[in-house]
Structure formats: C-alpha cells, structure tokens
Q: What sequence folds into this?
C-alpha cells in the first residue's frame, strides 16, 4: 500500500491483476487492470505508482504507472528480466535479484 499527497491509498490487488486507488471519501477506482499479479507498490517523487509484478511470467517485473487527471495510467517498463538488479529499489521486500 502507498499513500499519496491527496491522502488517497493505492493497493495492489494481486488476484485481479490491478491497482486500486481509494480516495479519502472511500471511492475506489482501478488504475489500471491487466497487470500480472502486482504484489507490491510505492509512489515515486512525481506521484507515479511503481509496481512490482510477478517475476514468474514474461511481463516486466517492475513498471511505472503514469497517471493523468482522470486516473488513466500509461504503463512504462522500469526493470526487465535479464541482467537487471533490484538492489536498493524502494519497494519493501525486494532485494538483489541479478
């Protein structure tokens, strides 16, 4: 889970392949679905959602969700599979995987 500057909470919905945003009024939106078993997330300094996905697939294990004003997200790969290291990555529970 992660909390943004507007006090909205972001949750990785692993079983449904989505990230959910819960605003302070309790409204839930999906930003986006179609991810591969997201299991951890955090926010970067710009407010983008950084998501760790299942490493057991062809999907990139780390992606950035760039959100627009309507909570529509574009997905950008940050870390691929081969020869990449996750050492020092800010998500909880991720260590070195090279």
A:
């Amino acid at each position: 889970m992660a909390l943004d500057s507007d006090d909205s909470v972001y949750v990785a919905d692993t079983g449904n392949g989505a990230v959910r945003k819960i605003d302070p009024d309790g409204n839930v939106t999906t930003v986006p679905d179609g991810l591969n078993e997201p299991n951890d997330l955090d926010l970067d300094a710009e407010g983008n959602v950084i998501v760790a996905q299942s490493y057991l697939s062809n999907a990139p294990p780390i992606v950035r969700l760039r959100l627009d004003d309507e909570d529509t997200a574009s997905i950008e790969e940050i870390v691929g599979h081969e020869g990449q290291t996750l050492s020092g990555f800010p998500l909880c529970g991720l260590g070195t995987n090279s």
Notes: The beta strands are 2-3, 9-13, 18-22, 28-33, 40-43, 49-52, 62-67, 73-79. The mean pLDDT is 77. The first strand starts at residue 2 and ends at 3. The chain has no helices and eight strands.
